[in-house]
Amino acid sequence: MANLDLFDSETAVRAAPDDNLLPYDGIVNDYGVVFEAAATDAYFYELLNHIPWRHDEAVMFGKHITTARKVAWYGDQNFHYRYSGATRTALPWNETLLALKQQVETLIQPVSPTGFNSCLLNLYHHGNEGMAWHSDDEACLGKNAVIASLSFGATRKFAFKHRRTGEKRDMLLQHGQLLVMRGSTQSHWLHAIMKTTKVHEPRINLTFRTMVEGA
């Protein structure tokens, strides 16, 4: 493991979120880049090299698909998270992820006072890997879930599309940037990581979530 002295509470930049990025039917707040440069780099390389990444799996149109993108799933206990037709079992937290979780919880405490109990990590090796339109609306996440998305590595376009109107919003997520989706966002909006041939570097995304017991 890397020297975790870099990952103390002093590395977090006390950011205030921008206004709601969505025009209606949900709330998305951009906290901007929330870590100092040295800590942001250290987190990225620690996650890239020490997370047990594995290819994601999905069932689409009755066919089993293995993605180029890699994932990891962590939690307070061995939560079972089912999405895209496949089930994942959470690994126990490591020191790095706990440090990140605690700092994110501190930054967004007013909108998520109870904190998070799990985290899904995605590794995109380059711009040809992305995530299709979807919403994080599984029953196990509860209604009006608060999801904190933390990005490391290459800058990528993150887009929203309203389920009914088709209206879109997009933004560029940068190295160390924190975005929080809450309210009715998952009920009304899809989101995606757009593919591009212009990005050749990896990106890591962490989405901190709260699994609901018995859902």
TrEMBL record:
GO annotation (BP), single: DNA alkylation repair
Keyword terms: Dioxygenase, DNA damage, DNA repair, Iron, Magnesium, Metal-binding, Oxidoreductase
Cross-referenced InterPro entries: AlkB-like, AlkB-like_sf, ALKBH3, Oxoglu/Fe-dep_dioxygenase_dom
Gene Ontology terms for molecular function: catalytic activity, acting on DNA; demethylase activity; dioxygenase activity; hydrolase activity; metal ion binding; oxidoreductase activity, acting on paired donors, with incorporation or reduction of molecular oxygen
Gene3D superfamilies in UniProt: Alpha-ketoglutarate-dependent dioxygenase AlkB-like (2.60.120.590)
SUPFAM superfamilies: Clavaminate synthase-like
Residue ranges of every copy of the Fe2OG dioxygenase domain listed in the record: 115-212
Domain of life: Bacteria
Cofactors (names): Fe(2+)
Coiled coil regions in record: none
Name assigned to this protein: DNA-N1-methyladenine dioxygenase
